[in-house]
Write a structure and sequence with these properties.
The structure is a single chain. The chain starts with 10 loop residues before the first strand and ends in a 5-residue tail after the last helix. Strands 1, 2, 3, 4, 5, 6 and 7 form a seven-stranded mixed beta sheet that branches. Helix 1 crosses helix 6. The chain contains six helices and seven strands; from the N terminus they run βαβααββαβαββα.
Length: 198
């Protein structure tokens, strides 16, 4: 779906990954954002290395770090988001959950949390059992943050090996199509509902 001529570019924020450089979770997220960029969007990735710099969320702290402020500012600006987490014991990783908890700083905004925004969801796991439970949990979190989880969620079983090459490309056409579908649904929602009003 192409944007009308002269229309603003949707801003899509990706959040996720692990502390392991080049993790399958972060590679999948990067490819989904690449599909959004190819569809005319501006994108920003907050990967595992960045998320690891965020302090444990503390609602009583009045002064945030530069990293926390940059993260919250990007979420506020976002027209849509893609969240990616590994399934750790059938749940969202602490690294990703800590970042999502920081969205509480937007509670008093005119448009709090993820209000009215499409959110694509992506889960990786070492086996299939944990993917469904974690995807369901992630959907519940997005609902609590007033976001709209896309109908299509991506679950990837990396137990038999990662479908991603060291250069970031995907060796499996089926996985690439799933990631592209996820991005299309996020971007399509943004364009149908309209970009965030400044």
């Amino acid at each position: 779906m192409e944007a009308p001529s002269g229309a603003a570019r949707p801003y899509i924020v990706g959040i996720g990954g692990t502390t392991k450089p080049g993790s399958s979770t972060e590679q999948a997220l990067a490819l989904a954002l690449k599909s959004a960029a190819a569809d005319g969007c501006e994108t920003r990735l907050f990967g595992g290395e960045f998320l690891a710099t965020l302090p444990h969320y503390d609602p009583s702290v009045e002064t945030r770090t530069p990293q926390e402020l940059a993260f919250v500012a990007a979420v506020r600006r976002a027209d849509g988001l893609i969240l990616a987490t590994p399934a750790y014991h059938a749940g969202v990783s602490g690294l990703v959950k800590n970042a999502l908890d920081l969205m509480q700083d937007t509670a008093a905004d005119a448009r709090p949390y993820l209000d009215g925004r499409a959110v694509g969801l992506l889960v990786t796991a070492y086996g299939w059992q944990a993917t469904g439970a974690t995807l369901g949990s992630l959907r519940s979190i997005v609902h609590a943050l007033r976001g709209w989880p896309t109908p299509f969620g991506v679950t990837l079983n990396t137990g038999s090996g990662s479908p991603f090459a060291p250069d970031g490309t995907c060796a499996e056409a089926r996985v690439q199509e799933q990631l592209s579908t996820l991005a299309r649904q996020v971007v399509g929602f943004v364009r149908q509902v309209g970009l965030r009003q400044a």
